[in-house]
Specification:
The protein is α+β, with helices and mostly antiparallel strands. The protein has one domain: OB fold (Dihydrolipoamide Acetyltransferase, E2P) (Beta Barrel), CATH 2.40.50. It has four helices and eight strands. It starts with a helix and ends with a helix.
Length: 156
Amino acid sequence: MNIDDLAKQAVLGVEARVTWMKTYINQADTAILSDFSVVPMRVMAGHPPPAASNRPGVPTPFVVTTYGGEVVKNGVTVRAVSHSIEQLRRNGTYLLFLKPLGKEAGHFNIVNAAAFEITGDRIRPLARDGHHLFREFVDLPREDISRRVSAAARNR
């Protein structure tokens, strides 16, 4: 998947600090989900949800929900693992391409496994076989990716 297509599909593209909030079983009792608090450091595509606070210059976190995690139910440990994408770390910095999840404002999930761990000037795809799936991202410096995503978002 190339940068232009991904930027067009995502409602929001951000570099962000991500912190684990909770892991739980969904209401239908069919999946284990994990919620993460996302604090944008840089918005490259779209607009983050409206701020919940009136503190200028302080980014307001929003929530990203992912499949997977571990819970204890009736004394039994239950674990779910996605076979398409690594779970986000409990505390990490990522480039995320997101779409709204449900009707709740400020709640998102990841578009097409497009989550990338940021380490210094480089990113690493979390998708299984991500170096193939997102090969256009692999050898580009982080700043070049940011510029290309911003330009693609402006052209949608």
